[in-house]
Write a structure and sequence with these properties.
Immunoglobulin-like; mainly beta; four-stranded antiparallel beta sheet; five-stranded antiparallel beta sheet; 0% helix; elongated
């Protein structure tokens, strides 16, 4: 569950996560604000994200996000945040990347010796 505090003009239409990344949906004509992740010490760090249409996909989950547009600020809190996150069962931290362990001496196709 997500809750917000601050200037409601920055409020996304929806906020959700899949245990690995956080997604924000904005109105199609809305300007996307600057997005920051708040670390455990309360410091802002620029969030890494990709935009696909009206969806902003942030590269992680977090306890708190901060949206800024000029002097306008909105904090978004993830009340269900789990610091450990989910296990994608891929041998990596991403459900989109699989890790393949190759025994010594077995080169992958196209790999240079």
């Amino acid at each position: 569950k997500y809750v917000a505090k601050g200037d409601r003009s920055l409020t996304p239409l929806a906020v959700w996560d899949n245990g690995y990344s956080t997604l924000l949906q904005f109105a199609g004509n809305a300007r996307i604000p600057s997005i920051f992740v708040i670390d455990p010490d309360g410091k802002e760090a620029t969030a890494s994200y990709a935009v696909n249409g009206d969806i902003v996909q942030l590269d992680q989950t977090a306890r708190e996000w901060r949206l800024r547009d000029g002097g306008t600020v909105l904090d978004i809190y993830n009340l269900g945040y789990q610091s450990v996150g989910g296990n994608p069962e891929t041998g990596t931290t991403s459900p989109d990347v699989s890790r393949i362990v190759v025994p010594p001496g077995n080169n992958l196709p196209g790999a240079k010796p």
